[in-house]
Here is the input.
Amino acid sequence: MDDEEDGGNGEDGGEPVEEPVENEFEDDVDILNYARTLELLEASFYTQGLENIGEEAFMNTLSEGDPLRDGMFGELETIQAHEEAHAEALGAAVEELGGEPVEEPEFDFGETVEDPMMFLEMAAQIEDVGVSAYAGAAPYIENDAVLVPALGIHSVEARHASYLRTLNGDTNFPNVIDAPRSRSEVEEIVAPYIVGMEAPDDEEDEENGEEESSGEESGSDTPDNGTDTPDNGTDTPDNGTDTPDNGTDTPDNGTDTPDNGTDTPDDDTNTSS
Here is the structure.
């Protein structure tokens, strides 16, 4: 993730949000499954990172005198447990509404779950994205029984983000007001880590590319036909060359006429005799 993807408005940002982001959800079940997917991503990220990296490597990212050092690994384990609990709670809420909880996708976090510093930076960004995702979806929740727990999860995600920013040496509260993100914006950010998922912009680019390709194929036929026209035009000058040849024949016939005229005086001479 890029730095501009993690904090919303920047450290000096925070313009009031006049309108909510675009509603890209079908119903409350769709919103819950969207949030559940994000929680599953977070839970898997922490699980893989903690197992691969280990407590000692994480502790070594902080100096020995740092008061956060000794309890660091335990706090990360707590966050991981929170993410799993969130995913389970959201799945249960989906079932209560008569829906089917989304299955856990396959994730690929690459080197971020192998290196402790990369992990901590990525963790802070993932949490920030989660906070903005809840803020973007919450206005479109119709059932109050869903809204209350969703807002409760949202605030916990903000606490996670704050703690991880501290571990990274960043300010806990970079913005006066955090901007929400739409579903498309969030999915564009997380798509590289979900195997088989395409970012919304990539799908649009493919569709536009297909349309442009079709247009180019149709357009290429026209120039080919246009090329044929000059070829036919070339034939016309060839026919024009034939015309002068026929014109040359005409003078030959004209020469024959005087010959016939000479014969006529011969006939007149005979008459006089």
Remarks:
- The domain at 7-197 is CATH 1.20.1260.10 (Ferritin).
- The chain is about 65% helix and 0% strand.
- Confidence is low (pLDDT under 50) at residues 218-273.
